[in-house]
Design brief:
This protein is of the alpha/beta class. It has three domains: about 170 residues, Glucose Oxidase, domain 1 (3-Layer(bba) Sandwich), CATH 3.50.30; about 290 residues, 3-Layer(aba) Sandwich (Aminopeptidase), CATH 3.40.630.10; about 25 residues, no CATH class. It is about 40% helix and about 20% strand. The longest helix has about 30 residues. It is elongated, with a radius of gyration of 34 Å. The two termini are about 40 Å apart. Keywords: Endoplasmic reticulum, Glycoprotein, Membrane, Signal, Transmembrane, Transmembrane helix. It holds the Pfam family Nicastrin.
């Protein structure tokens, strides 16, 4: 009998151990089940001449709260979750200006601002777009000493937000004592981007030179800046600013390559196509590209047309110039575009703005040409010069707000005007790029490139020398032009950028301290009971009592 008890003892102990392990695992599973993972995009961090702007931290590990927190609450260890749909911009502006302590900010963007969205824009969405653009300008021009992230609304995060609001409205905001939701972003602190590169591309369509003519052929340049800048670099797609300009340039290059491929229809003008970088930074890439030209090339350029934001207009475009409207080339360009515009039902206006050579701020790309004594103009839907980092590919500049028909009309306007000038058909109602002809604008080509640009962030400091997107642009230019050159330059040192632009946010539903203490008490009681039961069944009640009996003193033992 004793032998049977001794043999069964290990089996009995193993059974109890397994039961205890299962209990602990089930408890852990219950505690860790409510976690949601969300892709988040950090507010840009940069310096201008040493002055800090944007979000200065990246790591996050705080409780979440909505805007329904009680007055005077300590938010130094709290992340405010703010849907843009419910945004009170005045409140955010006041909070930032007062520099009150905060654990972090998480802004929830409507899905219409994502590339995957198939929603069409309406009046309500236009209002949201304006709010996002205003919020973006506020954030990128402020030094914010805590993490700021953006995320897109979805069912999971909306459910979490509804719970957070319910708890806050009941007077129980999330704290270590009450529990709630905890937002965690585990990432290294941002590091400076060393020697950020800007890459320029150029391609030629050489004109047909007459036999025995010793003179250089004149050149017309068509230029567009392709990079972007926005509050969140990983979301700065710039579908309109300046994706539309890039698409238009590529389609114009495609159309004229068809004309120039045949000696009978090749014009007596060289066409120079330039895709420049560094646009948001005073068109720094354009400056370095023009500086690389030799004097002979500069002298052959009659004029340049810069394409900027031409995908969201209704019936009016603007030509912006630095030289007086009386200048022969400016007058010729304006009249050519206006005449074609009248035929297409497009109103073309002219805006003249002198440049200040002593001011380093460059608002339009054509101003860099003017500084190099080259006549140039910018065609844009914008009637006034944008401010620094304004209209450079914002969060709200998404595919849903670009009108393909507007881009197609812009291409027709520029291509027809150029062709009439090159072939001497000014003032004649001749459609070289007629809709039904072999030289018609290709809507599918425009749509495919718009789609690609609308899902490709292009903030220059985060693009490498051989970035796949830059290589795709180079390959496309090589399809339609000759002597394609990729020029890599270092962005001027007054701008400093920091990495950590995208992260993963883990949202945990955490229990309160009271719950933790109660759980600890239950587990402790369970382990004591289990321990006592194992001792009684294996050794007997006397052995259990002896464990708690006070041992005899040393004097008693000596006696």
């Amino acid at each position: 009998m004793a032998a049977r008890d001794l043999g069964g003892r290990p089996v009995l102990e193993s059974v109890y151990s397994v039961i205890a392990l299962v209990f602990v695992l089930v408890a852990c599973a219950e505690l860790c089940d409510a976690a949601t993972v969300v892709d988040v995009y950090r507010l840009i961090q940069y310096d201008i001449a040493g002055a800090p702007f944007g979000s200065r931290l990246a790591g996050l590990n705080h409780h979440a709260s909505s805007l329904h927190f009680p007055p005077g609450a300590d938010l130094s260890r709290t992340v405010l979750v703010i849907p843009v749909r419910d945004l009170n911009l005045g409140y955010v502006k006041d909070y930032l200006s007062q520099r009150q302590p905060l654990g972090g900010l998480l802004f929830l963007l409507p899905q219409i601002f994502s590339f995957e969205s198939k929603e069409s824009s309406g009046n309500g969405e236009e209002l949201l777009k304006n709010i996002v653009m205003e919020l973006e300008q506020l954030l990128i021009h402020t030094n914010i000493p805590y993490p700021v992230y953006f995320a897109f609304e979805n069912d999971d995060i909306n459910t979490v937000l509804a719970d957070i609001k319910r708890n806050d409205e009941s007077g129980q905001p999330a704290t270590a004592t009450t529990g709630g939701y905890k937002l965690v972003v585990s990432t290294t602190e941002p590091k400076k981007v060393a020697s950020p590169v800007i890459s320029n591309l150029q391609g030629w369509l050489p004109g047909l030179k007459a036999d025995g003519d010793p003179n250089q052929l004149p050149t017309i340049a068509i230029v567009a800046s392709y990079d972007t800048f926005g509050a969140a670099p990983a979301l700065s797609m710039g579908s309109d600013s300046n994706g539309s300009g890039v698409v238009a340039l590529l389609e114009i290059a495609r159309l004229f390559s068809l004309l120039y491929s045949n000696p009978k229809t090749r014009g007596r003008y060289n066409l120079l196509f330039g895709l420049t970088s560094g646009g948001p930074y005073n068109y720094n890439g354009t400056h370095k590209w023009l500086r690389s030209f030799d004097q002979r090339l500069r002298e052959t350029i009659d004029y340049a047309i810069c394409l900027n934001s031409i995908g969201s207009w209704d019936n009016e475009l603007w030509i912006h110039v630095s030289k007086p409207p009386e200048n022969a080339y400016i007058k010729q360009t304006f009249e050519g575009l206006s005449n074609v515009g009248d035929e297409l039902g497009i109103k073309v206006g002219l805006k003249h703005k002198k440049i200040n050579i002593s001011n380093s701020r460059v608002a339009w790309e054509h101003e860099q040409f003017s500084r190099h004594r080259i006549t140039a103009a910018t065609l844009s839907e914008l009637s006034t010069a944008p401010g620094l980092f304004e209209n450079t590919g914002s969060l709200a500049d998404s595919r849903n707000f670009v009108n393909e028909a507007a881009v197609i009309k812009s291409v027709k306007l520029v291509a027809e005007s150029l062709a009439r000038h090159i072939y001497g058909h000014q003032g004649k109602n001749i459609q070289i790029f007629a809709d039904e002809g072999s030289l018609a604008v290709n809507p599918s080509y425009i749509r495919s490139w718009l789609d690609l640009l609308s899902q490709t962030p292009r903030v220059a400091p985060f693009l490498s020398k051989n970035d796949p997107f830059v290589m795709a642009l180079k390959k496309e230019l090589e399809e339609h032009t000759e002597e394609v050159i990729l020029q890599n330059e270092v962005l001027d040192g007054m701008f400093t950028f920091y990495d950590s632009t995208k992260a993963t946010l883990n949202i945990y539903q955490v229990a309160s301290v009271t719950f933790d203490l109660l759980l600890l008490l239950v587990l402790g009681s369970y382990l004591i009971v289990l321990f006592s039961f194992l001792i009684i069944t294996t050794r007997g009640l006397d052995d259990l009592i002896s464990l708690f009996r006070r041992p005899p003193s040393r004097k008693v033992k000596t006696a």
